[in-house]
């Protein structure tokens, strides 16, 4: 172990080349299951600490975790901002740090943007795998940013939808999105048009007020709600939250950070990890919402996968 040397630096392009959904998804399922077992000897993951960046209308989120049996000590620093509508600046910026749990030195510093994009989308895909109806045909994505793109990629890789619809508040956004994906998309000018009759709906906007309303959602649909990560931000309305069986990544995270959960007053039915562990049922036939906030264990197993693959590649050359 090189405790004195500088950490490895692995940046965006390399992370992009090394991370594959097919390898990431099973590791994320394992991490979600471990987290929900609440065994402190296995996983420690406190709710992330957020520091307000008042002048810049944003927050720094610090997301540490220790996964003892995996020998993983990791922290992500993620800044996220409430941007003006149409701002070209990114909504989030992230860096992941892997430490040696025995010695405490930093082993690797990695770009966290690709990891955040891919692990968030892959976890939403896991929620769909568990909670959507088996005959799901239509996917609707609200938003056309980074998360929209990663969600499109993993959902079309894992499932075969007959139609993928995309909505954004700006036409240019949808056009750009259409040009950056390899498969077909139906461009929608209104949210209602995009979600009516959809079997799976992904909300990946920067909205702080509801953009998806329950009255438009087909009974039995599955919604992965990914934006709105502050206790006073919303992306979906009370009608949808109350109609749905609500699943989350972390109960404590949702009760601390999710405006959609806190302000609608709904009861969280289960964590995704509970379903993976077989301790809570998957209500596929009902309308379901998976409220995602993002967890450190997801970043940790993603970063470990990147590091392992980086090392394997380095030893070959
Ligand atoms: N649950 C999780 O683990 C994570 C959640 N997020 C959240 O996901 C959301 C999307 O993130 P990115 O794709 O990186 O952002 P982005 O900035 O790349 O894309 C945001 C999208 O929202 C649209 N948008 C912006 N303001 C809007 C408004 N007022 N109404 C409707 N649409 C609006 C933009 O046109 C764009 O299509 C953010 O809220 C972010 O905080 C991000 C990372 C992880
Ligand atoms: O988990 C994550 O990286 C984030 N969740 C909300 C903004 C960033």
Automatic annotation (TrEMBL):
Annotated InterPro entries: NAD(P)-bd_dom_sf, ODC_Mu_crystall, ODC_N
GO MF annotations, alphabetized: pyrroline-2-carboxylate reductase activity; thiomorpholine-carboxylate dehydrogenase activity; thyroid hormone binding
Source superkingdom: Eukaryota
GO biological process, one term: thyroid hormone metabolic process
GO cellular component terms, A-Z: cytoplasm
Pfam family, one: OCD_Mu_crystall
Catalytic activity: (3R)-1,4-thiomorpholine-3-carboxylate + NADP(+) = 3,4-dehydrothiomorpholine-3-carboxylate + NADPH + 2 H(+); L-pipecolate + NADP(+) = Delta(1)-piperideine-2-carboxylate + NADPH + H(+); (S)-cystathionine ketimine + NADH + 2 H(+) = (3R,5S)-2,3,5,6,7-pentahydro-1,4-thiazepine-3,5-dicarboxylate + NAD(+); L-proline + NADP(+) = 1-pyrroline-2-carboxylate + NADPH + H(+)
UniProt-listed Enzyme Commission number(s): 1.5.1.1, 1.5.1.25
Protein family: Belongs to the ornithine cyclodeaminase/mu-crystallin family.
Subunit structure as annotated in this protein's UniProt entry: Homodimer. Binds the thyroid hormone triiodothyronine (T3); T3 binding inhibits enzymatic activity.
Record's protein name: Ketimine reductase mu-crystallin
Organism: Mastacembelus armatus (zig-zag eel)
Lineage, uppermost ranks: Eukaryota, Metazoa, Chordata, Craniata, Vertebrata
């Amino acid at each position: 172990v090189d405790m004195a040397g500088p950490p490895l630096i692995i940046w965006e392009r390399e992370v992009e080349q090394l991370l594959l959904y097919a390898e990431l998804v099973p590791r994320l399922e394992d991490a979600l299951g471990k987290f929900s077992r609440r065994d402190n000897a296995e996983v420690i993951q406190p709710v992330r600490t957020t520091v307000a960046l008042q002048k810049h209308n944003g927050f720094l989120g610090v997301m540490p975790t220790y996964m003892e049996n995996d020998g993983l000590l990791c922290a992500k620093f993620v800044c996220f901002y409430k941007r003006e509508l149409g701002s070209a600046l990114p909504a989030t910026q992230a860096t992941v740090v892997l430490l040696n749990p025995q010695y405490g030195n930093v082993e690797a510093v990695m770009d966290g943007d690709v990891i955040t994009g891919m692990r968030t989308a892959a976890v939403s895909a896991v929620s769909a795998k568990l909670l959507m109806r088996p005959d799901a045909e239509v996917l609707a994505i609200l938003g056309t940013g980074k998360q929209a793109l990663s969600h499109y990629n993993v959902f079309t890789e894992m499932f075969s939808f007959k139609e993928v619809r995309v909505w954004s508040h700006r036409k240019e956004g949808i056009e750009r999105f259409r040009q950056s994906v390899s498969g077909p998309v139906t461009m929608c000018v209104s949210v209602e048009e995009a979600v009516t009759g959809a079997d799976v709906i992904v909300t990946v906007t920067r909205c702080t007020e509801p953009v998806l309303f329950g009255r438009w959602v087909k009974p039995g649909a599955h919604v992965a709600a990914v934006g709105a990560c502050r206790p006073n931000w919303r992306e979906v309305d009370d009608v949808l939250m109350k109609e749905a069986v609500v699943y989350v990544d972390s109960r404590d995270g949702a009760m601390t950070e999710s405006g959609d959960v806190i302000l609608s007053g709904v009861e969280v039915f289960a964590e995704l990890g509970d379903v993976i562990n077989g301790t809570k049922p998957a209500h596929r036939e009902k309308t379901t919402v998976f409220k995602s906030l993002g967890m450190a264990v997801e970043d940790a197993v993603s970063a470990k996968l990147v590091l392992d693959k980086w090392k394997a590649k380095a030893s070959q050359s």
